[in-house]
Specification:
The chain has 184 residues and is mostly helical. It has one domain. The protein is built from eight helices and no strands. Helix 1 runs antiparallel to helix 4, helix 1 packs across helix 6 and helix 4 crosses helix 5.
């Protein structure tokens, strides 16, 4: 009777070492710095539009003084391909609230490193809508800062950037996130 030898091999190949995947300590800190910096971009836009600190928003146009945080940008899209649609949204209360909550939420989540998936999705959606509002682009036929920000937001979530210099690792171990992983 012949004995059949069975050669088996793993169904998956072993994962490459972390360094080979670009997950070095230096890369982790670089992604963390990008996360915090981009978070500050969002959070600062919220604070400046809320109080009109005189940077992008003068005090007279502050949200707390009755100004609309969306009117300036959206009214300026009238000549663009989708300008009619976006101009019609300018100054609407629900749009102002959604925009401001988005700026504050995305900025806070990025700075803290918590809720990176939701922040990346919401922030990328905001950036893509702002990109679409400016079509056709003046300085480049396709890519502007909104597209770059959207890509970086997704990369931050995929690289677990919230785990370094942030609360992401702790947040991912909470019962809430274990039950609802999309909140990671």
């Amino acid at each position: 009777m012949a004995i059949l030898e069975r050669h088996t091999r793993p169904l998956t190949t072993p994962a490459a070492p972390a360094a080979a995947q670009g997950r070095t300590p230096a890369a982790a800190y670089a992604w963390a710095a990008a996360r915090i910096a981009l978070g500050w971009v969002f959070l600062w836009a919220f604070v400046d539009k809320l109080f009109g600190l005189g940077f992008a928003t003068p005090a007279a146009k502050a949200w707390v003084n009755g100004g609309s945080p969306t009117t300036g940008f959206l009214k300026g899209t009238g000549e663009h391909a989708l300008g009619g649609f976006f101009s019609s949204l300018a100054g609407q209360v629900w749009v102002d609230w959604l925009f401001m909550l988005g700026l504050a939420g995305v900025g806070t989540a990025l700075i803290l490193g918590m809720g990176m998936r939701v922040a990346a999705g919401a922030g990328a959606l905001m950036m893509l809508m702002m990109w679409a509002a400016e079509l056709p682009l003046v300085t480049n036929p396709f890519v502007d800062e909104h597209i770059v920000y959207a890509i970086v937001l997704v990369a931050l979530a995929l690289s677990h950037a919230g785990d370094t210099l942030g609360l992401g690792a702790w947040w991912s171990r909470t019962a809430l996130v274990k039950r609802l992983p999309f909140l990671k």
